[in-house]
Every structure is written in structure tokens, then in C-alpha cells.
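WARN retry 2 of 3 for item q-0093 after timeout on previous attempt; input resubmitted unchanged.
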Amino acid sequence: MIIAVALMTVTQVSAKTLERKQLFDAGWQFALNDSTKWRAVNLPHDWSIEGAFDKDAPAGNDGAYLPTGKGWYRKTLLLDKAYKDKTLRLYFEGVYMNAEIYVNGQKAGGHPYGYSSFFVDITPYVVTGKNEIEVRVDNSKQKNCRWYSGSGIYRHVWLLTTGKRYIDEWSVSVATPDIHTVNLTADVVMEDGQRKAIQKTLHVENPRLWSPEDPYLYETTLEAEGDMLPVTYGIRTIDYSAEKGLILNGKPLKLNGACVHHDNGILGAAAYDAAEYRKVRLMKEAGFNALRTSHNPPSETFLKACDELGLLVIDEALDGWREKKNDNIYDYSTLFDQWWQQDIDAMVLRDRLHPSIFCWSTGNEVIERKHIGIIKTARQLATRIRSLDPLHRPVTSALAAWDRDWDIYDPLAAEHDIVGYNY
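OK item q-0093 returned
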């Protein structure tokens, strides 16, 4: 009976419910590995946490001795004629890992790194009427992560509906040349794929500056070519130096924080909104004013909670670069050369509107620390970040040595704006 109900689950969108951004979490079906038994699930979903503990699990202690493997998700989308001339995209906040997206049997997109958000344009593949959305997730190659990653579509999915001309969500940036001036810029994607730049300038007479003590947020909208996009931002100033330390809104601030992984304990990796807010709230109640997202970009809800509740954030992109860590033979080292720029872009373009973020981190205790080529790599990553962030937040990475050769870090440290040493 459960299977029968799952097979009938569909999402129907019509002109009456047409919204620019619709949550696409409910009514999915899921099958593990090569099973033909489908069951109903709602997102976010982590199939690993549902499994039994096994001392021989391929992910080992890093994966909490829980199962990984492969999974399939599918969902039926019904579209009426009102959607015929629209642009339809799916926005996946996080799928761990090696996601492949199919629409009506045709591959429409995907992304390998499980911590990056990504868009899939499904417009060329959908039809009026019934459409089958399928997502293949492959977390079978172990080990690939030094902490609990979970498996599956563990963050939200959204259906984005716009006209043929629309504002690119990740093109939106906010710059504040002074605390009274807010410059918003964005790109409009035209029908032929070309881009048209738009700009909006706001004057703020008596700005209320964002801080951990007073995390005040402003809201506005961008409008162009028949599209309208809400924008949330904060106004604050950041400066830093070896002599004065960190200066927030003109006042010295000592950071008291911790590294925080993305999972939610016994809930697994599933990024439930309430759990993400709870995690930030507990940090605040414990007396922290800052945190570092170890060692990957967090969920959007987590950053939203940091904005609203008042926690400063070091947003970290990667754990390692070109050399694997420990026995994680399938970690990001297998993706770095092909995907580093796309994943850096995904972090910065998605997250640069968050006033809670005061620093970017490109990596954590990278293994190739003594190779001369690491200088070029660090420079590439930092240069890319700086090119995408109009607020010019500082760039760092966590440096560590397991021997006495600390002096070798001097050239690498010089590629960062702020230097952090572990151990």
C-alpha cells in the first residue's frame, strides 16, 4: 500500500500557483542501490542515517560506520499550458554526491562535489503535462570524506520559474563604498543567453550596522525585464591588521569561536531548517561570536541563521586540494583540477550577500604543504575569490605542520590576507 501511494505522488503546478521560487521537497520516491522497491520520502533526506551500524561499512569511522552506496530519487511534475513559454530550473542546495539529474529520460545536469549548490535548466526537456524528474546519487566510492557526509539529497530543492529573460540569482552583488551608500548589481539573462547588466543604488540616511550584538538586515528588490528578485543584505565595515586585529564597524573585536561540521547529530546530514537554526542558537548561547564551516560550504539556512542571530563566519570551500588525506582515496583530490573553479564560484557567488561572512577559506591543512606548486594553487584560489567578492573580504586557509618545518609556510602564508595556524 505504501508503494502504491508513492507511485501516485505528483507535484502539479498551474497558473494559479505560479511562483518564482517554489519548494520542491515533498513527494519524492527513493530506491537504494539496485533495489526495485521504491518508498516515499520528503527532502531533505539522508539515507545513511537510516541504515544499521556496521563495523565493516566502507566509510568506516569517518562515515560513522553507516552505509553509503547509490540511490535514486524520482518525482512527477505536472505542468499546464501556462508554463509553455517559461524558463524552468531546478536549484539543488546540496546532494552528496556525484549527482546526475534526468528529465524525461534525458540527462539535464548534475554536480560531483557534494557540498556545492547548483542549478539545472530543465526547460529544454519538459513538456506540457507529465514530466519525470530523476536524480541519481553515487556515494559508493569510499573513502571520500574525513567526517560524516551522509548520502542523498540532504538539502532543499527548489523549482524556479521565470520568463525567458530573468535575473541571475548568483549574479547579484552588494557593495558599500561607505555606510550610507549601497550599490546593487546583477545580470539579466536574455533569451539568446547573452547578459545585460543592471544596477540599483540606495542611500541610507541613518544606517543600522550589522554586528553579532545587533544583526540588523535590510531588504529590497531588483526588477528588470519583467522579473523581480528579493534581496536581503546587511551594512557593516570590516578592517584588519596585525597591529589592531579585527575591526568591525570601527571597533576592535576578539573572535571567540569554533569549527562546526555540517551534520545535525542523530538527524544525520539532513539540513532541516529548525536543526540548522538550533545549531547556530546553541553556539550563541555558549558565548561564541564566530565560527568556521569545517570543511565545506554550509547550507543556505545555516548562513541565514548566522545573519539573523548574529554569528560571524569563515566560509570554507574545501578540506584538501590535489593530494588525498589519510586513506580517503576518493576525496576532493580526484576532482580538484577539473572542478576547483566551479566550486569556488559556487561558494562565493551563492554566499557573498551574507553579512555574517567576514572571511573566506580556501582549504584546511592541505597535505602538499611542502611542494613549491602549492604557492601557485593558493594564488589561483585566492585570486578567483577576490575577483568575485565586491566587499573584498580577506582570504585565508588553515595551515598546519606535523613536524618542525614551520618556516616553509612563509611563502604560502604570503598568499593569504589573514594567516591561521593549527596545532
